[in-house]
Amino acid sequence: MKTIMAMFEHVHWANLRILEIMKTIEEQKHEAKLLFSHILLAEEVWIRRINGGDSSPQAIWNELSVEECCKLVERNKQHFSELLAVLTEEDAERIIHYKNSTGTAFTTSIRDILTHVALHGQYHRGQINRSLRQGGREPINVDFIMYIR
Question: Pick from 24, 114, 36: which is nearest to 68 by CA?
Fold first, then answer.
């Protein structure tokens, strides 16, 4: 659980770093904004699933405003912190039953979901950095080792 907790502290740190660059992008539509919105919306979906809520109808590919991203970064941080504060090793192995956005049913352990959420966000942050570089901007270093240092 210590590793997962560290991963989620990194998730929040990385989200805050990306959020800062999102505030400087003036274009209404931008690939980086869409990808960042997707990260945050997916985090929200997964915490809803872990908590037993229905997430199947929620869109996860909508572009949010910077203000909406700010709120969701903090709300997701709060929800994951609350979960991790009480999650035991035994709880982490509990199986969650849920449906994806197309209605297909799946079962996954909380531990595997949490690992996925952290890795999923990092994957898309890499895509955000590629988009930033292609647009002439300097990528944001969100590597875990930079967080640890």
Answer: 36
Q: What pLDDT shows up at residue 101?
A: 81
Profile the chain (149 residues) by mean pLDDT over runs of 10 residues. Answer: 96 98 88 97 97 86 96 98 97 95 92 98 98 94 96
Q: Tokens in use for 101?
A: 């956005």
Per-residue pLDDT at 116? 98
Q: How many CA atoms lie within 13 A of 96 on its CB side?
A: 23
Picking from 120, 127, 129, 122, the residue whose alpha carbon sits closest to that of residue 143 is 122
> What does the alpha-carbon distance between residue 35 and residue 60 come to, in Å, rounded to a whole number?
10
Through-space distance between the first and last CA atoms of the chain, rounded to whole angstroms: 21
